[in-house]
Design brief:
Layout (H helix, E strand, L loop, with lengths): L5 E6 L2 E6 L10 H13 L8 E6 L3 E3 L29 H6 L5 E5 L2 E3 L1 H4 L6 E5 L3 E3 L2 H4 L7 H9 L1 H10 L2 E3 H6 L5 E3 L1 H15 L6 H13 L8 H9 L2 H11 L29
Parallel strand pairs: 2-3, 3-5, 4-6, 5-7, 6-8, 7-10
Antiparallel strand pairs: 1-2, 8-9
């Protein structure tokens, strides 16, 4: 996969994608936004990719939006009074949210503004002991972006979310761990290997890729849903070839060989069947 601002490497079913503008602290540019959206959409059709790790090149994860061009970098307002309509094709949040693969963020350095909010719809966040995080919107006169007002309180609770956003202060790994934002803290040189090792567990061939995709999207989409969609999914998957193979391999005491592929065998209903940008 050839990108200007991203590096990609596939090893053992784990795709590591590295934000690659180290001279700019991996600041989030229009090009990076477009390329990340393209990556997360393309990877849904790549059955050889079973899990994703996202990290940054150099000493930062992502230092926020590249504001060298002024406030136009945020692309939030048109005439200053009317909200600009955001299409699904413009949203890194929806591209990550709609992804069919489990995603691990390896936050190796500074993650500020969109640098941290893009991590919220990822499934696991792991952090370097030297990294710093900041929800600095109030210091920039900006509204919370990238769906963070929806994700952050659900991940850490309203009280913690309010404190981090209202103070707009940078905080370190210990506070992020205590507040429940990250799963674990690692020495800088141990972070990426630890994230890749966890992703490798997600990518194990003993796990059905279709079931993993369904269950990832179910857990995100059922937050606040009015009906338990999983009841439909249980019946559909139970009648499918993966479930039959899972049961057969159990009784035969061997590793399963699941035949279904997320690129073509997802259930015909559910959030993955909606047009991009459909209801969360």
């Amino acid at each position: 996969m050839d990108y200007e601002t991203l590096l990609t490497q596939l090893t053992g079913g784990v795709m590591t994608v590295t934000l690659n503008r180290p001279d700019k602290l991996n600041a989030f540019s229009t090009t990076m936004s477009r390329e990340l959206i393209n990556f997360f959409q393309r990877v849904n059709a790549m059955d050889e990719v079973r899990a994703i790790v996202v990290t940054g090149a150099g000493r930062a994860f992502c230092a926020g939006a590249d504001i060298s061009g002024g406030t136009s970098a945020f692309r939030v307002w048109n005439d200053g009074s009317k909200p600009e309509k955001r299409e699904a094709s413009d949203s890194i949040t929806l591209a990550i949210f709609n992804c069919l693969k489990p995603i691990v963020a390896a936050i190796n350095g500074a993650a500020v503004g969109v640098g941290i909010t893009m991590c919220l719809p990822m499934d696991i966040r792991m952090m370097s002991s030297t990294a710093r995080i900041g929800f600095v919107f109030n210091k920039r006169g900006m509204a919370m972006e990238a769906g963070s007002c929806w994700f952050l309180p659900r991940l850490v609770g309203m009280q913690q979310a309010q404190e981090w956003v209202m103070t707009a202060e940078l905080f370190g790994a210990d506070e992020a761990l205590k507040g429940g934002l990250v799963r674990s803290v690692h020495a800088p040189e141990e972070l990426l290997p630890a994230a890749q090792a966890l992703a490798a567990k997600f990518a194990a061939s003993t796990s059905s890729a279709v079931a993993a995709a369904v269950n990832r999207r179910l857990m995100w989409s059922m937050w606040g849903a009015q009906d338990p969609l999983d009841l439909q999914c249980v019946g559909h998957l139970a009648a499918g070839a993966d479930a039959q193979e899972g049961i057969k391999s159990f009784f035969e005491k061997r590793a399963p060989n699941f035949p279904l592929k997320p690129s073509k065998d997802m259930p015909p209903f559910g959030p993955w069947a909606q047009p991009a940008g459909g209801s969360r």
